[in-house]
Every structure is written in structure tokens, then in C-alpha cells.
Design a protein that fits this description.
- This protein has helices spanning about 40-45, 90-110, 125-135, 155-160, 180-195, 210-225; strands at about 1-5, 10-15, 25-30, 55-60, 60-65, 70-75, 115-120, 140-145, 170-175, 200-205.
- The protein is an alpha/beta fold and about 230 residues long.
- The chain has an eight-stranded mixed β-sheet with strand order 1-2-4-3-7-8-9-10, with helices on both faces. It has a two-stranded antiparallel ribbon with strand order 5-6.
- A hairpin with a 7-residue loop joins strand 1 (about 1-5) and strand 2.
Length: about 230
């Protein structure tokens, strides 16, 4: 495992399942966490030896978060209301989109085409996965949207790019989630389905977290789209 810093790129924690990886998973953490948050899940996925996969866990920039009294913490964008969507930090979301696109471009430069990259995220990281993935002009291998929602929902239909129209989207949510309540996630799911996207929906009897059954389902999804 390494920590990689390149000028103009976010600091990232990296973990490879084998030498000379041919595929990548770029996995964004949630509000207040960091790039180490999901590193322990990688061995639990029990992925096969081939193809070798580089897991990239970017660290969000530290910034004040309004709903937490202006306390500075790692955040992909500001959260202005507890309902998440009444007022949204559109400028912050788009800044993080640019930063994530730069990480994708760095993987391209290292020999991994976008078609072999899965974009993934939890909570705020989920929001950035869906926001960025829908707008990306190159096709991804897949998207994993965990315990989150699609921000700027009303703009998605007009701003999305056709490149990822058929990209599989794994969406997972806890039925007892008090942070991103289930209706917020199902509204995002329903919009994506109405736009014809390939949504693989899963819900689990859990709060704002990840459970063992979900990890097994993530593993199956990754083995499918990274085959």
C-alpha cells in the first residue's frame, strides 16, 4: 500500500491486488473520513488473482462544513442542510468532479483505459461517483454507489453524457440509514431507471454503514464488470 501525491492531484492511498494492474477502482470516502476508510475491505472482497486491480482511494480536500458548525474536515463539497438537497453546493460538487476526472486521467496515463475503471464511493463519495460518472465523456467499466444519492438531481438528465448510458450501476443502501435516508436514495435510483440506466439495486437491514452481505455483492459486481 502506498500514498501517492502528484502536483495538482489529490493525495491518494493505493492498494494493488497484483503486479502491473490492468484495471482500477477509484473509491471515494464519505464526509469526515479519508482515503484509508475502505482499504480494509479490499482483502474481504476476495477478488481473483487476475486481472490485477489497482484500488485508488483519494483524500477529499479539507474544508468547512456548514451543517457541522463550520468545522473543517475532509469533504467533497459543503453540506448546507440536513435534507441534503434543498440547497446544494453546486460549485463544490463541480470542483470535486474536476479533481476526480484528473485521477481518472492519471490512471489513463498509467496505462489503464477508462473502460477498465470502476468509479465507486460511499455517502458523499457516492454522490460524487454518480455525479461524475454520468457526465464523463468516456465509458467506465461500472459505478458503485454506496449509501448515497445523486446530487443536483434536476440537472442530471440535461448534463449527462451518452458514454455511460449502458454502464452498470451498483446501488446499495441501508433501510435504517439515518444520514442519507432511504427515500433520498430511491429517488436517485428511480430517476436513473427512468433515464434507461442499468441500475443494480440492493438494500440491506443496516444503518449508514457497510455489511458483510453487501461486501459479497460488491465482489460479485466487480468480478462481473472487471472481467
Amino acid at each position: 500500500m502506498t500514498s501517492d501525491t502528484t502536483p495538482d492531484l489529490l493525495d491518494c492511498v493505493e492498494l494493488q491486488t497484483g503486479p502491473q494492474p490492468t484495471h482500477a477502482v477509484i473509491w471515494m470516502h464519505g464526509l469526515g473520513a479519508d482515503g484509508n476508510d475502505f482499504v480494509p475491505i479490499v482483502p474481504e472482497l476476495r477478488l481473483p488473482a487476475t486481472p490485477a486491480v489497482r484500488f485508488v482511494f483519494p483524500n477529499a480536500p479539507v474544508q468547512p462544513v456548514t451543517i457541522n458548525g463550520g468545522m473543517a474536515m475532509p469533504a467533497w463539497y459543503d453540506i448546507l442542510n440536513r435534507d441534503l438537497v434543498r440547497r446544494e453546493d453546486g460549485a463544490g460538487i463541480r470542483r470535486s468532479e474536476t479533481a476526480i476526472r484528473a485521477i481518472i486521467a492519471r490512471e489513463n496515463a498509467r496505462g489503464i483505459p477508462t473502460s477498465r475503471i470502476v468509479l465507486a464511493g460511499f455517502s458523499q463519495g457516492c454522490a460524487m461517483t454518480l455525479h461524475t460518472g454520468l457526465r464523463l465523456p468516456e465509458k467506465l467499466a461500472g459505478m458503485m454507489a454506496l449509501s448515497g444519492y445523486l446530487p443536483l438531481l434536476d440537472l442530471a438528465a440535461a448534463e449527462r453524457h451518452g458514454a455511460n448510458q449502458d454502464t452498470p450501476i451498483f446501488m446499495a443502501h441501508g433501510t435504517y440509514d439515518p444520514v442519507v435516508e432511504l427515500p433520498r436514495a430511491t429517488a436517485s435510483r428511480d430517476l436513473l431507471v427512468s433515464l434507461g440506466h442499468d441500475v443494480r439495486w440492493h438494500d440491506y437491514p443496516m444503518p449508514h454503514s457497510v455489511c458483510a452481505e453487501e461486501v459479497a455483492d460488491i465482489s460479485a459486481f466487480l468480478q462481473e464488470v472487471l472481467a
